[in-house]
Predict the structure.
Amino acid sequence: MSATTIKLPSAPVKTAPPRGASWAARLFAGLLQGLRTVGRHLIEQRQRWAQARAIQEMLRLADSYSVSQPGFAAELRAAAARLQSEDDESARA
């Protein structure tokens, strides 16, 4: 006894997408977009905090050098003021 395989041509079967698939895709895309926006805001907030900490540290360092090296302390204060003004300008934009 031998087995014979016969290949019959067939048309592709049309299938409909599952119910709710397009709704779920839109929901997921909206959720993903929202998470990206929140992430962007968190990164920007952390950068602003880091900048504020750097300014505070410069001013603290300037205070510690004000007696021994007043010129260096003045430069540190000027640098902190420049950073602060740049920060203010970027916040307005």
Remarks:
- The chain has a mean pLDDT of 90.
- The chain has two helices and no strands.
